[in-house]
Write a structure and sequence with these properties.
Helices cover 46% and strands 11% of the residues. It has 250 residues and is α/β, with parallel strands linked by helices.
Length: 250
């Protein structure tokens, strides 16, 4: 049997818990009373107790840009470079997290002790990448919801790390797929076509030399490419925002 709206002292306790709770706590309260989350929000609103400040699962780009949240909802562009395309057959060579309008945060495998004797163990690198990424609310990738994020999640599970918290994800590849009739939706083609950068590539042998020979010069080139990816990705995101209808959970 469905629970009814609490009354009296129970209602006062409910209101206090509601306003002190995180978004996850509010979801727990709704579940406790066996009602939908939106129902509990209506209870608060109808009683004149103020509307919920909890973020919805989806919001329009206009709502996001026009809002003034109590907690800063920052954008970061995110890209990883790996020795192969499958997490169980490869390692992460580098990763870049670039907060919007700020300098990139760079992670590279050769800065970790395991690089010299235990190169297949990227646990410390994955830990640092995930620890930084989880600090940010909105993650911008290019084909990242098909590759970068699933690859990182697989590595996190492998190394017994806590999952990423609820976050929002914007994939510029998906926006291009739905809105731009171009010959290729690769990042290099899009930034060139929109005149927002000159993204270069890296020869395949560089990945081989970095991953198998610990060639620092090869890894330098890969890291430079990784940084350029995130800079160009940020520019592409700005071009893509007007076509963004909603921001889904990552």
């Amino acid at each position: 049997m469905k629970r009814k709206k609490p009354e009296g002292k129970e209602w006062d306790e409910f209101v206090t818990q509601w306003h002190e709770a995180t978004h996850e706590g509010k979801l727990w309260l709704a579940d406790k009373y066996e009602v939908h989350f939106d129902t509990t929000k209506h209870w608060i609103s109808d009683a004149g107790e103020g509307s919920s400040s909890a973020p919805s699962m989806r919001m329009t780009a206009q709502e996001l840009i026009g809002s003034r949240p109590q907690v800063q909802l920052d954008f970061v562009s995110f890209d990883i470079e790996t020795s192969n395309l499958r997490a169980d057959f490869s390692i992460i060579l580098s990763a870049v997290i670039k907060p919007f309008g700020k300098d990139p945060i760079v992670f590279r495998a050769d800065e970790y002790k395991s690089w010299n004797k235990d190169r297949s163990n990227d646990a410390d690198l994955v830990t640092d990448i995930s620890d930084e990424l989880r600090k940010h609310a909105i993650v911008i990738t290019h084909y990242g919801q098909k590759f970068d994020i699933p690859f990182l999640r697989a590595k996190m599970v492998k190394h017994q790390l806590e999952p990423l918290p609820p976050m929002f994800g914007i994939d510029s590849w998906r926006i291009a797929k739905n809105n731009f009739a171009v010959s290729s939706r690769r990042l290099a083609n899009l930034v060139s076509f929109f005149d927002i950068g000159e993204k270069g590539g890296v020869d395949g042998p560089l990945w081989m030399r970095a991953a198998y020979d610990a060639d620092s010069d090869a890894l330098d080139a890969i890291v430079e490419h990784n940084i350029i990816d995130c800079v160009e990705l940020e520019a592409l995101a700005c071009v893509s925002f007007p076509f963004l209808k909603s921001i889904p959970k990552l």
